[in-house]
């Protein structure tokens, strides 16, 4: 039976980073994945260009932008391995990149460059990589762990679980990490799909469906949380960055509130239209500021026939309320099939915040998405994977 100092389960972003760091320290490391290619989610991320970090994914914003039952848990790892550290690595490999918006860094070329970079680093760190290999059983031994793989059994002193969340089962997500946590008696917080499009009941959907394909800049809010980004109407409901962001906060039964005209004082705009273009219908007035099909639908919803010149202040207030505080009640989300991440995971109280070692099970570490830390959209989740992987890599 081959013995390793450390075995890392899952060759995604977090697992590759942990294996590289441990290998660099001279540890004998085995990295295992059932997929035949490493980093499948890196490959499809950012529309194929991988939004590999966000310059704002730092300790300063960490408590707000990384959701967890313990919002402080991520801070230590985020402070020890920063976006600047990952950018340095990307620059050393001469991967051209650019900031798209809101601090989001993307490859100019392809996400494959990030995967190739990590594979090169794994090779340099002399990590043994076994792909296309199932993990059949994990057991605690006196000296560490025994892992039964489809290729045979192996043992190790330190075992790191980096098998990700439940999102996109088609791409190899299995929830193995949660099962292992359960096996070792570690608590797992409730998990749910996040960064995911929201869906609507049939009646509401009938109204939204004709808008499929329309995109507009909006502020989408839930409670005190607000995101100003694109909102996209789809055949199933609402999507786009503003919706994906709010989906991490929304819960069944709640409404979301949409401001369709975030840059304008709507009342001022409507009064101006009433004075200057009194013969226009409300749809036509709105179409000067919003996509035409959306303006049409809002006009129908308002049911205020006639010309804006004849509208009372009360009529204008009704228009203003609809475009600035449009309340929508989703019934659900598209689920793990399309969710970018899983909210919740291994309860952070079970883990050491410096090393990600389970307090009850010495030598067993959990990193990346499987842990109850979920970032905002826009490179935050990869930064969490790199930072937690790096921190575990120093300890295993
Ligand atoms: P990850 O899921 O990457 O890796 C887990 C690995 O474990 C996989 O290789 C899997 O095959 C393996 N595994 C699972 N179960 C196993 C089992 N039973 N046996 C063996 N192996 C097993 N984030 C971001 O910051 N910027 C972005 O641009 C995007 N874009 C994006 C697009 C899409 C479509 C998705 C679905 C997700 C994103 N994300 C993102 C989120 C990001 O991909 C995610 O947060 C990280 O990949 C998490 O990294 P991990 O290494 O923790 O898990």
From TrEMBL:
Coiled coil: none annotated. Its cofactor is FAD. Keywords: FAD, Flavoprotein. Residues 5-394 form the RsdA/BaiN/AoA(So)-like Rossmann fold-like domain. SUPFAM superfamilies: FAD/NAD(P)-binding domain, HI0933 insert domain-like. It comes from the Bacteria. The keyword Iron does not apply. Pfam families: HI0933_like, HI0933_like_1st. Residues 192-341 form the RsdA/BaiN/AoA(So)-like insert domain. This is Membrane protein. It comes from Devosia geojensis.
